[in-house]
Amino acid sequence: MLIQLAATIYAISLIKRTRYNVSWILISMAFVLMAIRRLFDFSALFWETKLFPQDEINAWIAVFISVLMLIGVIFIREIFNLQNQIDQIRKENEQKILSAVINAEDKARQIIARELHDGLAPVLSSIKMSLTAIKPDPLNPLNQKIIENAYRATDDSIIALKEISNNLSPHILINFGLKTAIEDFSEKLFSSTETEVQLNLEIEEGLLTDELKISSYRIVSELMNNSLKHASPNSVYLKMKTAGKLFIVHYEDDGTGINEPVSEENGKTQGMGFNNIVSRTKSLNGTYHLPTLKSKGFSIEFFFPLK
Question: CA 16 → CA 13, 25, 195, distances in Å?
Fold first, then answer.
């Protein structure tokens, strides 16, 4: 009886903390009725004649307890359903916020690239033209050397500016599409290496949104950069295809691999590069599978829903 009373008191004390939730009030009432039943049982130890017709009252109390518990459990189920809805809304909001942040980042990249191309590039070209117009005949050898160095430095600056602008916002992706952009990027990246690159691009670009094109390009370029910098692979393989309502990206290399398998839980421990890949994947409501083991190359597959 004492244990039952303690449970009842504790249940009642939690009503306020549950903000007077109906389900907990009903369950607390059931605890109270259970305590009353124990009180009836306890009274039989002191009186030969029972204070109440215990059997009949116990039966009715048991019925009320069952009813209260049933209704309370039904309300608790509604709470769980509501919690699931809240979790789904929270997940959707997180995805929208992440997508908005990444879109803002890409737009900022495009603005900076445009400003560099339209603002700084003409200035460098003008300097190059001015240097070209200088007649070297009246100049002494030292000044001629200075002019030549300045000309080469200006030429190198224009090339570097184009590369920076293209990395910020690849014009090939915007003007010619995802397939051409990836082919161009991989050719430039691996042209001076002995790495064999195999591309299998079955892309129906009409099914892809601009956001999906940009993010998948960024993901693939990050993966290729990581392979070249850290894995020293002999070969790289990339397959991109649309299958039903999914856009699938499969990437692998035969390099040194990574130290441990990466999952949704520990993906962020692999560095900023992989963190960016995970963020872009989540922003598109996509998933990835990475079964990589140590010293067995690198392999990853992405699944993006098509809108």
Answer: 7, 10, 67
pTM score over 0.90: no
Contacts by 26-29, CB closer than 8 A, 24 or more apart: 26/68, 26/69, 26/71, 26/72, 26/75, 27/68, 27/69, 27/72, 29/68
Residues 114 and 146 in one domain: yes
Give 26's contacts (C-beta < 8 A, 6+ positions apart): 68, 69, 71, 72, 75
- 118 and 220 within one domain: no
Domain that residue 125 falls in: 1-169
Ranked by mean pLDDT, the top range of 16-25, 233-242, 271-280 is: 233-242
Same domain membership, residue 281 and residue 187: yes
77: three-class secondary structure by DSSP: helix
Q: Whole-angstrom Cα distance, residue 122 to residue 128? A: 10
> From CA 215, how far away is CA 181, in angstroms rounded?
13
Name the domain count of the chain: 2
The pLDDT tens digits of the residues spanning 133-169 come to: 777 677 777 777 787 788 788 877 777 767 676 666 6
Q: Look over the chain and give the mean of its residue pLDDT values, rounded to a whole number.
A: 78
